[in-house]
Amino acid sequence: MEFSLSEEQVMLQDSIRRYLESSCSLNEVRQAVADGITQQTDVWQGISDLGILGIIIPEELGGVGLGFLEAALVAEVLGRAVAPVPFIGSAIMAPVALLAAGDDRQKETWLPKIADGTTVFGVGVTEQIGRRETDGIFYSGGTITGKAMFVVDGVDADMLIIADDASTLHIVDANASGVTRQKLKTIDKTRSVAEIVFESVEADPLPGSKGNQEALQQTINVGRIMLSADSLGASEVMIEQAVAYAKERKQFDRVIGSFQAVKHMCSEMAAELEPCRSLVWYAAHSVNDMPDDTQLMACHAKAHLSEIGRFVAKTATEVHGGMGFTDLLGLHYWFKRIGLDRQLLGSPELVREEAALAQGW
Amino acid sequence: MDIAYNPEYEAFRVEVQRFLEENKSKAPAGHRGRGRPTAEEQAWQQLLIKHGYAARTIPKEYGGYGAEPDILKSHIIAEEFAIAGVKPGHNGDDRLVPVVLEIGTEEQKKALIGPTIRGEMMWCQGYSEPGSGSDLASLSTKGVLEGDQWVINGQKIWTSGAQHADMCFCLVRTEPDAPKHQGISYLIFPMDTPGIEVRPLVTMTGEAIFNETFFTDVRIPADGIIGKRGEGWFVANATLKHERGSLGDPNQTERRFRLLVDLMKNEKVDGTPLIEIPSYRDRLLRLQARVFSMKYNGMRILTAYAKDEEPGLPRWIVKLQGCELNHQLSALAIDAMGELGVLYEDSPYLRDEGMWQQTYMLDLGLIIGGGTAQIQKNMIGERALGLPKEPKYTQN
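ok -> C-alpha cells follow
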C-alpha cells in the first residue's frame, strides 16, 4: 500500500508547474483575456512540446501513454496557472471517448493529431447531464440536428465529439456546413465554452458508444475528475496568496495574519482543501486501477471540490479585504476559474444525485 | 500509487483473519468499558498480546509482543478487527506507555509497562486545571521536594477514569522561579495515596466520564518522576501529540457512517425510507465525500509514516476535521429521525441504544478536548502556514 505520488509523478508535475510559472504568469493571462483568446499560442506550443496534449494517448498513437492520475496532476497545475488553453475537453475527454468507443480508423486518424496539437477537439455532452435551452441532439441518416450547449473547448475546436439523445458519441467537423457556433461569454475568460447548432451535419458515430451509456459515462466521469483537479490547483493558489497577503498586510500596527480572525480563515481553508487532494488522487487513480469505483469517486470529487473550491474562493478573497475585490490584484481569475469548474458537467446537487444512484440509494 | 498491499501484507492479513475466525468467540462483547477490565477482558487482552495483536511493538522484556514497528501491519490489524466487529486490544495507555518507553528508567519500564498493558494497572491523566486549559503550561498544581518526598498540592480537572485508576501521571509545577514551560515535572504516583480526593464531574451526556481531582499534601516518593525535574512539559508533549493523532481517526468515522446509512435505509417517515428523501440524502452525500476524503487522507499519512516521513499538513488537520465530521454524522442521524431523534436513556422507541444523541454530545466534548478547534486552527496557521503568533499582551 502506497498512497503517494511516485518520484516520476512529482517530477512531471514540477516541470510543468515551473514551465507555467515562467511562461504563463498573470501578465500573460491578462493579455490573453484582453485579446479574447482561450488558446494562447505560446502556452499552447509550450504544453504541446511538454507532451501534455497526448498525456493519456497511447504511445503507438503519438501520445505519451500515462495514466489519469498524471492527467489530474497536469489539470491541477493548469488550474494553478489559470492557463488559457484548451485541455480538459480536447486533450482528455475527447481522447477518452475515442479510446473507449472509437474504431481503429477513428483512433488512428484523430488521436495523433490531438497529441501533436494540430487538432483541437470540443466536447458537447451537457444535454446528457442536464438539458437547458435546447431539445438536445438527434441523429438520423448519418447526420445530426439540434443544439449543443456549453461545449467544452468548443470555440477553439476544429473537431467535435457530440453526444446525441441516445448517448451515442459522434465525431463532427466543427467547420462543416450546417454548423453554427457561438461563443458563450462566461465569468471565466480563460476557457471557451460554445453553443453549437447543427442542421443535418454529417456525423461519424463512435461504434462502441451505440446502444450503451458506458463511453459517454466514462467521458463525463473523467471530465469531472479533471475539473475537480483544476479547482484543486486554483484553490491552492488562492490560499497561498491569502496567506502571503496576511503575512504582509499591516493594520493596527500588526500583520493581519497575527489576528486570530484572519489566521483561522487561512487555517480553515487549508484544513478543508488538504483532504480534497487525496480524494482527487484516488478518483483519478481509480480510472486506471479500480474502474468499479470511478463513477462514485468522480461524482464525489466533482461535487466536493466544487463546494470546497467555492469556500476557498470566497474566503481567500475576504482575507485580501477590499483589494481582493479589485481587478488590480487579479485574484478574481482564480475565483472565476473555480466558478466555471463548479457549473460545468453538472453542478454539485445534481452530481450528488448521480452518486446516490451509483450506490443504489 | 498503489492501493493494494503487497503479498507479504496480504498474507499477514489472512493470518489475522484466521486468528479472528478461530478466536472471536472468546472476545468480550461490547465496547471497552470505562471502568476496570473484567476477567474476560483481561484474558482476551493476554491472548492478543501473545499473538501480537495488542502491545505489538512493546519489547518482550517489558511484557509486550516485541515486533518490529510496522505501521502497515498495525493498520491491517485495526482494519480486520473493525471489519470482524471484534473488540480490539490496547497498548495499555497510549498516552503513558510511549513516554515510559522513551524516557523512563529501566526500573520504571520493568515495573510499569507489563501491568499496564495487561490491564492490571489503570492510569489517569492529571494535566488540565480549572485555570489552565488551552494554556496548559500555566498550570499551578505545586510540588515541593521535602527530603525524599514530593509534596503535592492543587487541583486537576478532566481526569477521566480517576475513580478507577491505580496510578496518575501528573504535571506539577516544581520549579516556581523558572519560565513557565521549564518549571514543570512529570510525576507518577498511586491514586490511593492519602490526600487525593476524586469528585465525579457529570457532563451534558448525563454521565460522569470525567472527574475533578484534588491534591492536599499528597506525599509521594522522590523517584516518582519521569524524566528530569523541570522537563515535564517536554515529556508530556510526546503524549499529547499521540492523543491528537487518535482523535478524529477515519476508521471510526467510516464505521459511524455505515451505521448512519443503515439507519437511513431502515427508518421510514410516512412510509418512505429516510435515504429516499432528497434533502436528507443530499446531506448524507455531502458527508460521504468528506468521509472518503478523510479516509484517503489517512492513507496518505500512513504512507508517510511507513516511509519514515513527517506527513505535515495532512496530519495537522485530522483532529479538527475528523471530530467535526463525526459530530455532523450524528447531527444528520438526529435530524433525519425527527422527533425520534430526541429520545434518550431508556426511552421506548429508542434507536441504536441512543448512540446518536450520545455521540452528538460526546463529539462536542472531543471538538473541545485534546486541544480545542480554535487551538488547532492556531497550530495549523502558525506551524503549517507560517503565520505569526498573536503578539503577547503586556501592560504599558
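Chain B has twelve helices and ten strands.
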